[in-house]
Amino acid sequence: MDIRPFDLKKDSRAVERIWYECGWVENETQASFVKDFLSTGNCIVGCLDGVAECQVLTVPGTIHHLDQPLKLCAVTAVTTSRIARKQGFARVMTAQQLATAALEGAEVAALGMFDQGFYDQVGFGTGAYEHMIRFDPTTLQVDAPFRVPARLTKDNWADIHGAIVGRLKHHGAVVLDPPLIMKGELAWHENGFGLGYYDGKALSHFFWAEAKDEHGPYEISFIAYRSVDELVELLALIKSLGDQVSSFVVQEPAHLQLQTLLKQPFRNRRNTFRSNFENIHRTEAWWQVRLLDVAACLERFSWSGEAFEFNLELTDPAADFLSGEEWQGVGGEYVVRIGERSDAQAGSRTGLPTLTASINTFSRLFFGIASATEQLIAPDFAAPDELIRQLDAAFCLPRMTTSWDF
């Protein structure tokens, strides 16, 4: 395969063509921001006859495990042209990008998937369910004052990125480091707008939405706040728009169960069924995650219960697509200790129970996405009953949500 670093001058037009063919851009205005995206991280291209026909971009950031930020490699764009499909470019190039990121210190990788199954081949496990809710803003049972907000436009991309970086964090919270990535994100929203509040010169809390029609739905792409009080003010602001707007769509924020704030949600769902403003609650897992450094991740984990140890026999399918790279995935044998000070050391120890797992399933366990018991149905996850019980207790974690659709 002819795989090389992306060259802005040489490859820009070819990559733009790929994005058109994938349906990621639809017009010249959107295409003009592709360069902004490609300059935010590490981009490589796969070529046929010297022309870029596949492109994989990774961006540095962080992902929170409980209150611990882990160094993240976000795979933000994998695109293949119509003539280069089924040539193996995407798998090999994604694996190479994971190897590069791991050698540069990334501890976790994550991506948004086009469908479940493909990225499993390079070690990714399915992420937690995200809740997408369409609701009538007038049914929000929030009785709180709100101030006149500031109007935000696409020109405020740097302020918006700053507010997301500084937002109240939660288990799974993702931050992508380059501010310029927000410029590209907002470019996709032809009728996008934002409303928010400044604390001095800094944007403290806001939401960004795209208006579909006069009466909505208004689809919220980003919402950020530093405290629950600021979240309440944003909800009150959303409710105030209900005089004109019949429905909002939002990915449920991490710090609330939105349904509990809606008046008669089941009645409104029935009454709006099959309308343009149907009240609906849809749940799906659209993202995937995997560990790039098992020892580094476990060292950040603290368990207040009774400490325990086990042998971990780990497989990593990414190794099948890595030839010659210094990093060959994280497969191998580890002795793992879970306790107030957790760790993983290479090797095995006689007398300890053994967990056999793929990095796909072990990553889901580590983030609390699926318990050990739930994963026993997977063919690549097995352990004795007592160890399963201990793992269930230790990795019983809060609901994980990224709050960034990357």
Report on this structure:
This protein has helices spanning 8-22, 28-31, 34-38, 89-103, 157-165, 180-187, 228-240, 265-271, 294-299, 359-366, 372-375, 385-394; strands spanning 2-5, 42-48, 51-65, 68-80, 108-112, 125-126, 130-135, 150-152, 174-176, 192-199, 202-211, 218-224, 248-251, 280-284, 287-291, 308-315, 332-338, 343-346, 354-358, 381-382. The protein is of the alpha+beta class. A hairpin with a 4-residue loop joins β17 and β18. Strands 1, 2, 3, 4, 5, 6, 9 and 15 form an 8-stranded mixed beta sheet that branches. α5 (157-165) packs across α6 (180-187). The model has no long low-confidence stretch (mean pLDDT 95).
Condensed summary:
The protein has helices at 8-22, 28-31, 34-38, 89-103, 157-165, 180-187, 228-240, 265-271, 294-299, 359-366, 372-375, 385-394; strands spanning 2-5, 42-48, 51-65, 68-80, 108-112, 125-126, 130-135, 150-152, 174-176, 192-199, 202-211, 218-224, 248-251, 280-284, 287-291, 308-315, 332-338, 343-346, 354-358, 381-382.
